[in-house]
Known about the structure:
Blueprint: E1 5-10, H1 22-45, E2 55-57, H2 60-69, H3 72-84, E3 87-89, H4 102-119, E4 125-130, H5 138-144, E5 149-154, E6 168-173, E7 179-185, H6 190-194, E8 214-215, E9 218-219, H7 224-248, E10 255-260, H8 273-285, E11 288-291, H9 294-304, E12 310-312, H10 327-346, H11 355-369, H12 385-415, E13 428-432, E14 439-448, E15 452-453, E16 456-457, E17 463-468, E18 474-475, E19 477-482, E20 485-494, E21 499-507, E22 536-537, E23 540-542, E24 546-551, E25 555-561, E26 566-567, E27 579-583, H13 591-596, E28 608-611, E29 613-622, E30 626-634, E31 638-648, E32 653-662, E33 669-675, E34 685-689, E35 692-694, E36 709-710, E37 714-717, E38 723-728, E39 733-736, H14 752-755, E40 759-765, E41 778-789, H15 794-806, E42 809-812
Parallel strand pairs: 1-10, 1-11, 2-3, 4-5, 5-7, 6-12
Antiparallel strand pairs: 6-7, 8-9, 13-21, 13-42, 14-20, 15-16, 17-18, 17-21, 19-20, 22-23, 23-24, 24-25, 25-26, 27-28, 27-33, 29-30, 30-31, 31-32, 32-41, 33-40, 34-35, 34-37, 36-39, 37-38, 38-41, 39-40
Amino acid sequence: MKPWKIFLIQHSHTDIGYTERQEKLTRYHVDFIRQAMDILDDIHSGKLDAAGFRWQCENIWQLDNFYDNASAEDIARFEKYVRSGEIGVSGNYLNMTEMVDWDVLLTRTQKAKSYGEKIGVNIDSGMSADINGYAWGYPDALSMSGVSNLFCALHPHHGMFPMGKKHFPFLWEGPKGGKVLTWVGEHYHFGNELGFSPEAPSSYMIRDDRRVLSEMGKLYTTDAAATKAEEEETLRIRLTRYLDALEADGYSYDFVPFMVSGCITDNAPPSAAIVERANYISKELGIDVQMSTLHDFFAYVRSNVPDIPTFSGDFADWWADGIGSTANTVKVCRDAQRRYDLCRKLDPDNKDGSAALMEEAAQNVMMYAEHTWGYSSSISEPWDSLVALLEKRKDAFAINASNAAALNLDAILAKRGEVTIQAHRPQRFKVINPHKEAFDGIVKLSVEFWEFVNGICYDLRHAVVITDEATGEKLPAQGHRIARAYEVEVAIHLEPGEEKVLLLAQNTEKNTTLRNYPYVGADGIEDLETGVTYPEMPCLLETDWFRVEIEQGKGIAAIIDKATGKNIVQEGDIGAFSGLYEVTPAGGLSQCEVRRRMGRKRRCMATRQDVAKLTDSEVIESGDVHVTAKLTYQLEGCHFYYVYLKLYKHAPIIEARACFHKKSEWDPENLYVMLPFVSDGSNETYIDKTGCILRPGIDQLPQTCQDFWALQNGLVRKGSKRDLIIACKDAPLVSLGELKYGPTVLCNGDSVALNRSIASSWVLNNYWETNFKADLGGFYEFTYTLESAVPADTAAEMERCRDLNEGVLGFYY
């Protein structure tokens, strides 16, 4: 056996809402730091023989809460032990999903740098536990925050390690050039599995003969001495086997790190007894076992590992799909992020708004985007009161973020001239383009249902007239009724940051008559393709930009882009924006077991699949700005599935809203909205993730997930004469390729065919066997905007996605 050196990094895995109420866990983690300090106090005073004890704070969130709740004496103790190196501070904020956007992520991550500068300690190392990846922008965020090392204690349940191996150090380079030394190690409780933590064993990953003696590692013995003996024997056997296997596999180093916890649970307290167990095995096997912080471990790596290779690309997160289990609340969080971004654009220095509200919004966005979706028995016991309680507390983060961002945006717009509703007011509106790019699109103005316009009740039978107050220019406009108001859509061009004042009036003149060519009969049905006007009928819609063909069954079969003459809907059986539903009957299995068997593919041989079938189509609105059709589909798993298809007449833009009523079902399900769009060229696909733009299947780390990705704003499919921009306002998850069961193929950077294959928006799922929301039943709406654009820089096209999702602002002035 090699002269092994083993680093034990003791931490408490932060899983907010998985094991207890979120606010209760906040108290736990504050007290865990106190417990660690008490242990160190006892060691230094001679009360406890546990020299070498170390505690690693897993994230900055733990520190935030500690400082908010600790006494001055405790804070002084903590900083003393951080400076001495006996307590480590991690530079990441929390264990995150990829839902959080770049600006919010950076504000949280840079807290580590600010804290280190405040107390005079270089916080150069961060860690994550549980999560299976990060967006490519993460190494840039860490690097910009002074963090140069990242330890990933990955949990390979429904996921897997990148690079094809564990314990492999590499420099991960972000798209902006930031680099972090990254070490992907074993599961974050692997030290417990080996037996390093007394009375805290596990047999989760290791399935050996020692597992037979226990239930998932929990020993049943008759006295404490027998427990200790069995645990020490397990440690000796398992550690020896593990180290021998490393040597047999050609492992290059004579050191290895293991994460360990004081108890075999998430959100675990510290244990000084780990030192005793480490000393035992050091003597038994003649190896060097020591407790360590992240900083000390990475210092050793950098001193002892020459020629560390550099890799660049996305570390796609296998666990991002939790987003699809709480889709409506995710919409609230995305709304908060959009409002936050609008505030940042309009008021970068917080002169008109509130820095406190911006901080509140950012913090709550970060908390909602944290990786825990619910209580641990959300699937096995979805009726349990604690499941419902913790779900609503999780929702509260998104709601509070949206509320804070909305309040701040309201304050900013008030400074820009927004007025509250008032009787007998003139219909005068200000519109603002908050973006750095010129905006060609729609601004939506709201007229209350009770308002009169120039003394006349607002009436949809009268044409709406919008005038630019400064120039007198008449702008195309069209109104329709919404719940408690009339929404007027105005086609507008605005330069970056430009503001305009618009006046609204009605044209009450009745000057319609019959045209001198056949287009409508006495029955009032327009079903003739005359060649004189564009058809607007249930099977055919046309504008200057597109010709849309709608077929029974298939739905939207063709969208002819007039700029290229090409059909941008991929040939096949599935129409654009059609729904695709999957369910996997549990049969005789438990709801947890059927999900476990689905592995990484999120489906299995028993999975049933159904594609929406168009049963009806109706043109419901047409005017100067757009023509809109309502498409009705039949889809298993849904009471109804509608697509409201809106073709704008001023620009090559189509908006589609997929609206459906999902039935309640306990069995694992998936629901997709199909995006089968192809360009007139290569169809090379780009997506935007947190802090990066990448080609899925190509710009990724080796051996990473390429079945789905969590995007920020949308995707771009590159063409020859035209690129296709697809903005996904509400649903972050996207898949490429056929949706079918088969072997999981990992990315090796050369999946060109996959990159250019059919796309689908993965809007709903409940397949995870522990803490996803079990019931997807309810009403949903997901909005997509498709634009045919002259080829441009991909970064600019992604900004266009963001601008389309955020829109421009219009309000009474």
